[in-house]
Amino acid sequence: MKLSDRFSEALVFAEKLHRQQVRKGSGVPYVAHLLGVASLVLEAGGDEDEAIALVGRS
């Protein structure tokens, strides 16, 4: 699967939106969680729209 510019734009949007947030207890940037979940969706056969919906959520 090749991801489009829409996915890249969603990543930039999510990073800007969540830049100051970290995961409780670990201090890991929150955006890392969104990327991890999007990765799981794509690896499980989800499409770009589903991955974008997860990355772009707030």
State the distance separating the first and last CA atoms: 25 Å
Count every helix, treating DSSP H or I runs of 4 or more residues as helices: 3
Please report the total strand number as a whole number: 0
Q: Considering DSSP H and I runs of 4 or more, what fraction of the residues is helical?
A: 55-70%
Overall tally of domains? 1
The overall pLDDT average reads 90
The class by helix and strand makeup works out as: mainly alpha
Characterise this structure:
By secondary structure, the chain is mainly α. The chain has one domain (5-55). It contains 3 helices and no strands. Helix 1 (5-18) runs antiparallel to helix 2 (30-43) and helix 2 packs antiparallel against helix 3 (48-55). The mean pLDDT is 90.
Task: Write a brief caption for the model.
The protein has 58 residues and is mainly α. The protein is built from three helices and no strands.
Indicate the topology.
Blueprint: H1 5-18, H2 30-43, H3 48-55
